[in-house]
Specification:
mainly alpha
Length: about 70
């Protein structure tokens, strides 16, 4: 079985990024949480995911304050 026939483990995250960017007029700032989820996926799967090319594994998309403050879900 070739690599191309296996499902990319980070593809769903890549699709969420595209949808978020489209919904927010391609403003990366509005999609930081989705971008961070992709980075976390790529930290785990970068050797198996074609979608991870171009993702900086060492750069968090969230500021320290955003990481420390739980999001209000109300």
């Amino acid at each position: 079985m070739s690599y191309n026939t296996k499902k990319d483990p980070c593809k769903a995250n890549a699709c969420r990024i595209q949808a978020c960017l489209k919904d927010n007029n391609f403003q990366e700032e509005k999609c930081k949480e989705v971008l961070e989820q992709m980075r976390i996926c790529c930290q785990k799967w970068h050797k198996k995911s074609v979608c991870c090319s171009g993702i900086d594994l060492n750069r968090s998309y969230l500021s320290e304050e955003e990481v420390q403050e739980p999001k209000n879900t109300k």
